[in-house]
């Protein structure tokens, strides 16, 4: 694969559904041109592909020089034009910069601090048992993604928000339509108008939640968001809805991908599964390795605010950079034998949760959920094998396995 083709791979949603193709391209970029200019027009606007761990860290550390607005994620050129003409359809923590980012993050930050989350530990373990029990009830064969992992973290985060369980399937469908815009199986449609309709459906749902929590405040996270004030004023309708949407979607989809990809790796590497079963003290390091291995968030974009240099390249003010997390997490300069799945890998300096001001707010919760699930599953799992071909979602932003057929024996 030549360097130009490798760069264009990053703007091809189908490449993320073909891990061999993706990682071949990323290795070419790391070795030959780790800060590489990619011009995929007319489908996408051009950008610098940042593929080395050290360069990603440099960008993440300088959040005033490299900002999220106006292009926080890679979307089609048509969507970029729509945003330029109409403004952002969402204003989540992903979309905004300091000092506003810091103020908006403070609205929900206390809910995701380790001390607060420790109070959820019993509930999370109970839910982990519920879904491992479901695997047992399914009779030794299932699509692990569709029948187990999409529901477990969904239940955790939506319960934290305080939403009724009867609404969970609706939120799941909207999440898949939002993140699956490039996947024919998951998408509602590809156009900006169809994406807008997905968001409007989210907004309509959460508008009712906001009205209810303001009239009848409760102790849940939804009530905290609905009644939050900055400078004495409630959040705008857009900011309120955006807070709900990012928590209700990223708060479960990425964790689901990690757990599914983690079990897939354990099935593909039975010696590591047996090692982990014999030594459950390795579960925390195993979960970190799963997070590195899967890397559910594929990229974020940054825009340079001034002329600068990165990795020996001159970056112009206003030019965009794509931070390629799957590449950074397989960087040979940082990880010993990075294409080996190692449940005891330590240290493990993966960047799956980002770094610096924009580090993932839900990282601690995601780790807790994955650890609880595998702590429940592994002592009960006698054996497991593939029952068909796994399938990954087509995406340029967030994704992972969408189907994982398994056969197994579980106690």
Q: In the residues, how many domains can be counted? A: 1
What is the CATH topology descriptor? Cytochrome p450
Low-confidence stretches: none
- Helix run count: 17
Rg, rounded, reads 21 Å
Most strands sheet: 5 strands, mixed
**Average pLDDT, to the nearest integer?**
95
Strands side by side in the biggest sheet: 1-2-10-7-3
Strand composition percent:
5-15%
What is the CATH-assigned architecture? Orthogonal Bundle
According to CATH, the homologous superfamily is: Cytochrome P450
Morphology: globular
The CATH class is Mainly Alpha
Distance from first to last alpha carbon:
47 Å
Protein name: Cytochrome P450
Subcellular location: Cytoplasm
Main location: cytoplasm
GO molecular function, one term: steroid hydroxylase activity
Can you give a write-up of this model?
- Belongs to the cytochrome P450 family.
- The chain is α+β, with helices and mostly antiparallel strands.
- The protein has a single domain (3-410), classed as Cytochrome P450 (Cytochrome p450), CATH 1.10.630.
- It has helices at residues 3-9, 19-32, 53-61, 77-86, 100-106, 114-118, 121-137, 144-149, 152-161, 168-179, 192-215, 221-227, 237-268, 270-278, 283-294, 325-328, 363-377, and strands at 35-38, 47-50, 66-67, 141-143, 229-230, 233-234, 299-304, 308-310, 313-315, 320-324, 381-386, 391-392, 401-403, 405-410.
- The strands form 5 sheets. The chain has a 5-stranded mixed beta sheet with strand order 1-2-10-7-3, sandwiched between helices.
- The model has no long low-confidence stretch (mean pLDDT 95).
């Amino acid at each position: 694969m030549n360097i130009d083709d490798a760069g264009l791979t990053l703007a091809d949603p189908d490449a993320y559904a073909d891990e061999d193709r993706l990682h071949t391209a990323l290795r070419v970029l790391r070795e030959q041109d780790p800060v590489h200019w990619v011009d995929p027009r007319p489908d996408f606007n051009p950008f610098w592909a940042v593929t080395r761990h050290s360069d990603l860290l440099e960008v993440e550390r300088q959040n005033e020089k490299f900002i999220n607005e106006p292009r926080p994620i890679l979307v089609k050129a048509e969507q970029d034009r729509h945003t330029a003409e109409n403004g952002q359809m969402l204003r989540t923590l992903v979309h905004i910069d300091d000092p506003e980012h810091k103020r908006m993050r403070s609205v929900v930050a206390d809910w995701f601090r380790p001390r607060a989350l420790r109070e959820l530990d019993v509930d999370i373990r109970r839910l982990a048992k519920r879904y491992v029990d479901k695997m047992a009830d399914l009779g030794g064969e299932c699509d692990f993604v569709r029948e187990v992992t999409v529901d477990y973290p969904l239940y955790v985060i939506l319960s934290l928000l305080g939403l009724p369980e009867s609404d969970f399937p609706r939120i799941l469908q909207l999440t898949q339509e939002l993140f699956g815009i490039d996947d024919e199986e998951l998408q509602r449609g590809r156009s900006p108008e169809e994406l807008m309709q997905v968001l409007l459906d989210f907004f309509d749902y959460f508008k009712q939640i906001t009205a209810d929590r303001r009239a009848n405040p409760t102790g849940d996270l939804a009530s905290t968001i609905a009644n939050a004030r900055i400078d004495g004023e409630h959040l705008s309708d857009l900011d309120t809805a955006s807070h709900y949407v990012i928590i209700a979607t990223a708060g479960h989809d990425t964790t689901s991908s990690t757990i599914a990809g983690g079990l897939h790796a354990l099935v593909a590497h039975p010696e590591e599964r047996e090692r982990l079963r014999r030594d459950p003290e390795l579960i925390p390091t195993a979960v970190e390795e799963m997070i590195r291995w899967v890397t559910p968030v594929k990229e974020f974009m940054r825009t340079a605010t001034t002329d600068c240099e990165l990795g020996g390249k001159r970056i112009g003010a206003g030019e965009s950079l794509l931070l390629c997390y799957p590449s950074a997490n397989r960087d040979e300069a940082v990880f010993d034998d990075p294409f080996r799945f190692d449940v005891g890998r330590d240290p493990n300096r993966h960047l799956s949760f980002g770094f610096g001001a924009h580090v993932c707010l839900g990282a601690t919760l995601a780790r807790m959920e994955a650890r609880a699930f595998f702590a429940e599953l592994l002592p009960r799992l006698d054996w497991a094998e593939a029952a068909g071909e796994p399938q990954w979602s087509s995406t340029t932003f967030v994704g992972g396995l969408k189907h994982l057929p398994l056969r197994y024996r579980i106690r």
